[in-house]
Amino acid sequence: MLNIFFLSTVLFAASTLAYPQPVPENSSHGLTHKHLSPQGRKAGLSGYIGIQSTPAFAQLAPQLSWYSDYTPNTPSSHGLKGVSMLWGASGSSCGSVVDDRLATFKKMVKKGNVPDIVFGFYEPDCSCPSSSDMTVAEGAADWNALLAPLAKNHGTILGSPSMCKQYDEDYLTPFKAQISRPWDVTAVHINKPNLAEAKKDIEYYVQKYKKPIWVAEFACVHDQPSWQPCTDQGEIDTFIRDVVKYFEGNKHVVAYGPSNGEGLGDVWPLTKDGKLTASGKTYLAAVKGL
């Protein structure tokens, strides 16, 4: 009998774009190489350590499927899958944030607590302390030592390093040439002010690396000529509604989540003092019922 996955891949290649056939699956965890959307749903949340204990998280959780707090051991909570990230490694000079998370990661793996999916590294193409700041050679060496073995030995799904420079990135191509095991899904950060610019990010990564896309962060930001977070609530609301609809309808996007990190001003963040802001309520409404 003709392999159904192979047939679908061939047909897709003929019409538009084919992803490389995934490595054989031997992961016994939730996600698989063929099914990358947690619980079959895309919407999630990029949060912060402790966000799962907030009232805002409890309100959002019924409509979402995953979240990240940027650590290797993000705990699943309120029915949401905690997604693992190795923020940085020995090649980074960012100090304790790297050292602590790297130590946690190594302890997890040593004890056999291997995640079914892990992302690494966080914006190695930009400087500390907000990004992990690793050269291509350093990032590739750490990837080969720490992440590639998880895919080989445990079937772990690997998410690419996420780029600070968005579609202007110049890191992943030389990085790809130096790693022993390619990533399975491309992690994308979108900090743009409108749907048209967000589409450029997605289209760049789809065409360049031909992998499924996981929008690990998105936020409304005027990033040119300098970084200026959106401050108009109407602009933010439009951006959220537009990109959620776009992500949901884009077959290349397997997951997406808004950012709640630093540098995003006072209006964008979805939570404040543990409660939903106007932006948070807009995101909740946009994903409700999907």
TrEMBL record:
Keywords: Signal. Transmembrane segments: none annotated. Residues 52-283 form the Asl1-like glycosyl hydrolase catalytic domain. Residues 1-18 form the signal peptide. GO terms for cellular component: fungal-type cell wall. The keyword Kinase does not apply. GO terms for biological process: fungal-type cell wall polysaccharide metabolic process. It holds the Pfam family Glyco_hydro_cc. This is Asl1-like glycosyl hydrolase catalytic domain-containing protein. It comes from Extremus antarcticus.
